[in-house]
Design goal:
It is found in: Membrane. With about 325 residues, the protein is mainly alpha-helical. The chain contains eleven helices and four strands. It has a domain of about 230 residues: Up-down Bundle (A middle domain of Talin 1). About 80% of the residues lie in helices and about 5% in strands.
Length: about 325
């Protein structure tokens, strides 16, 4: 039964990803926004929904390690695993805004996340605490960033439309259809991720894996599957702006929305291992992405192999660092 649930979840994710990309492209055209901005906002928020749900539930039940580990692990997986696999399928050209706006914002969010995690006094002597007011700061900064993206994109798209009279604006009926496709896609990703995660955890338990190891590997991967499917589908359909925007945007959303909202609901304790191992890896991989964006016109398959190798190394370090039970 677990294998059936796993397969059902994967199939639902693939179908949901196809609907999501189609809907996002239609909405971008109608609202005169670039596909990159739609990927950075609507698509990113949708694919970050599993992280938000898991983290809030974990914080409310007093499992702050799961809440933090879920976001940090997903952010590492989004760049090192998901982007790595995506460019192995189809090398991605890099938009200028990804280099000068989106990546800097992702790094800023990551550094601010680390600074907030170091401050405050949590329940452990050597750890930190992300306070409610820090969660509010993260969320307000996200709203300001989204406002900037939308205004900037609408101005840029308007200029392009003046230069190219052949640009086709979808009709109201097509716009409604795009919204419907987007909604179907988001629902498909939500339930697909739930079923895939449920099946994977049950199979892992049957194989005798420890619950802590399952959380570090399968849960973090499971909540990143929507990003993987959406980015792979977008790359296959040559909607490369959605693909890259989805991943960078999801990392920004994970920190500023997921951690921000979770901290507002309940302040988050941060352990020493999270500060000294997981967050350092997250920052290192975010920094490593910059040369891959600026060197050459594309993120090539070779760069994808490097990213994938870094994810495998991260998982190996995590597994080796676990205390024997």
């Amino acid at each position: 039964m677990s294998y059936l649930v796993l397969i059902l979840g994967l199939a639902t994710l693939i179908i949901g990803g196809e609907f999501l990309v189609r809907g996002a492209v239609g909405i971008a055209q109608k609202l005169k926004l670039s596909s990159l901005v739609i990927g950075m906002t609507v698509v990113s928020f949708g694919t970050s929904a599993p992280e938000l749900i898991v983290s809030i539930k974990a914080a409310l039940y007093g499992n702050s390690e799961i809440a933090l580990g879920n976001v940090i692990g997903s952010n590492i997986a989004n760049i090192a695993l998901v982007l790595g696999i995506t460019v192995l399928i189809f090398p991605l050209p890099v938009d200028r805004n990804s280099k000068i706006i989106d990546w800097p914002m992702m790094l800023f969010a990551s550094v601010l996340f680390y600074v907030f995690a170091m401050t405050g006094t949590g329940s452990t002597e050597t750890g930190g605490l992300i306070e409610r007011y820090e969660g509010i700061i993260l969320f307000v900064l996200l709203l300001a960033f989204i406002t900037f993206l939308i205004r900037n994109s609408r101005k840029h798209t308007a200029r392009l439309m003046e230069e190219d009279e052949a640009v086709v604006i979808p009709t109201s009926r097509q716009f409604i259809q795009a919204i419907l496709f987007l909604a179907i896609g988001l629902v498909g990703l939500y339930f697909g991720a739930e079923w895939l995660l449920k099946g994977a955890v049950e199979i892992a338990l049957d194989w005798g894996m420890e619950e802590r190891i399952i959380g570090i590997t399968i849960i973090a991967f499971g909540t990143s599957v929507p990003e993987l499917v959406t980015s792979a589908v977008a790359a296959y359909r040559k909607e490369t702006d959605i693909s890259i925007g989805n991943l960078i945007g999801s990392n920004i959303f994970n920190i500023m929305a997921v951690i921000g909202i979770t901290a507002i609901v309940k302040p988050i304790d941060v352990t020493e291992n999270t500060l000294n191992i997981d967050m350092i890896w997250m920052l290192a991989i975010a920094l490593a992405l910059l040369p891959m964006l600026v060197i050459g016109k594309k993120i090539t398959r070779f760069k994808g192999l490097l990213l994938l190798g870094s994810y495998i190394a991260y998982i190996a370090v995590l597994l080796l660092s676990q205390s024997p039970q």
